[in-house]
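It is worth pausing here to work through a concrete case rather than discussing structure prediction in the abstract. The textbook approach is simple: state the sequence, then state the predicted structure, then interpret. We follow exactly that order.
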Amino acid sequence: MVDQSVDLGFITLKNPVIPASGTFGYGEEFQSFYDLDRLGAFILKGIYKEPRPGNPPPRLHETASGLLNSIGLAGPGAQELRRIIKRVRAGTSTPIIVNVCGAEDDEYLEVAEIFDAMPEVDLLELNISCPNVRAGGKCPAMDDRHTYRLVNRIKQHTHKPLIVKLSPNVSDVVSVALAAQEAGADSLSLVNTYLGLAVNLEKRAPVFHNVMAGLSGPAIKPLALKLVWEVASRVSIPVIGIGGIMTGRDVLEYMLVGAAAVQTGTVNMVEPGASVRIVQEIEELMKELKIKNLSEIKGELKV
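Step two, the predicted structure:
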């Protein structure tokens, strides 16, 4: 027998696999594929206070070993999501994480307070790093001072554990991570998507209305692993690794560089049952490598 459970300090998950925001809908879309209780947790699509239409199409563009997206955080608004969460909670005991968004700091706080008050919600993930809402990919996570102010404000007005989702599109992600930790973040998740550009040769124009979009998928895994390793070695709070995870081996590699858990993203869009497959692969690989508990390899990269 092997033990896949992971202790984040503020919550223990049965396994380290967490479908990422934006790739898992609101959970109920996947209930026909498998039992959500087989996951460590899952994160709902990012939500604003009011409904949002998102960016105009096209919204997705495939690349070599990756996917560019410019969805623009379309969503039904906080009050409709409250109703959805109550339906989803009735069918699973797996921790539900709400991905909190805001056009301005005040909206981030309002949304966080709405879901902080819901007993059906276990954790909040503060999405300060989405690159495809504003032109040029501007977001709070690109500035360590803005990150500190916003995280600190959220922590002063909420009670649930707070995960802060960081951007790779900065010159020094460690300084932003340390600012979030100092402000009171309980955990960090990284990385969000990398800024990328796709062009239409025939039209001599960008593919996306916002020009740039967010790149995810296997293409970014080596870059994301590097940043997770750098951040995990400098902070004292749990780091959740994201970027190009397709297999159980990918998960163990992230944990080896210091991640306490992981989020699966693009793979859920091409293979709806991928996250459960990955949980099974982790178990098989742990047996093969004679790993009884995931804590045995966490942060054990020999450099």
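Step three, interpretation. The chain has a mean pLDDT of 95. DSSP finds eight helices and 16 strands in the chain.
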